[in-house]
Amino acid sequence: MKYIGVILLVWFATNRAGQDIYVCKNATVSLYSKAPIEDIDARSDKGTSVLNTATGEVAFSVLIRSFKFDKALMQEHFNENYMESDKYPQASFKGKITDKPDLTKDGVYPVTATGVFEAHGIKQNRSIAGKLTVANGAISLTSEFMVACKDHKIDIPTLVFQNIAETIRIKVNAAYSAYK
Are 112 and 98 in contact (CB under 8 A)? Predict the structure, then answer.
């Protein structure tokens, strides 16, 4: 009888925790740089994210090489010269949503996640604003924020400074499914 209680307790805790965990395996992450000579625009649909609605914890990750550009040469320069993708293969954010909303009700909720953003091997404490949307029980998250190249030691050679902006706009879109 004692073991049945332990088994039920473990099952309940595991089952309950599973209901609070949501994942996205195909988050869209885009980057945009407005520069005098040429804009840089790239997109990846291979971002991953986990959202714990009970604790407000959220994590994102994207492989740098998964970004696709219109021009192959631009993609090559991005990976080899600027982001050094072989040495720093991913960018990530891990944090916690402050003032988490009641996600049992449909609506659009402005949120801020505070945590650590890492790109090019440099970690930076950030507060990133976004919107959580709940529609018929489905949860999605969108965010747009700026990343300064100098904050992550992404060097822009003087020769091409007019081709690349000093700050890059990042957009994230994730549609979550309950973790099973």
Answer: yes
Could you give all domains of the chain from N- to C-terminal order, each with its CATH number? 22-178 (2.40.128.110)
pTM: 0.81
**pLDDT digits over 119-156, tens only?**
989 899 999 999 999 999 899 999 999 988 776 566 66
SS3 at position 74: helix
Half-sphere exposure of 37 (CA within 13 A, CB side): 6
Whether the Cβ atoms of residue 128 and residue 157 lie closer than 8 Å to each other: no
Radius of gyration for the alpha carbons in the chain, expressed in angstroms and rounded: 19
State the virtual CA torsion across 118, 159, 44, 55 in degrees, nearest 10.
20
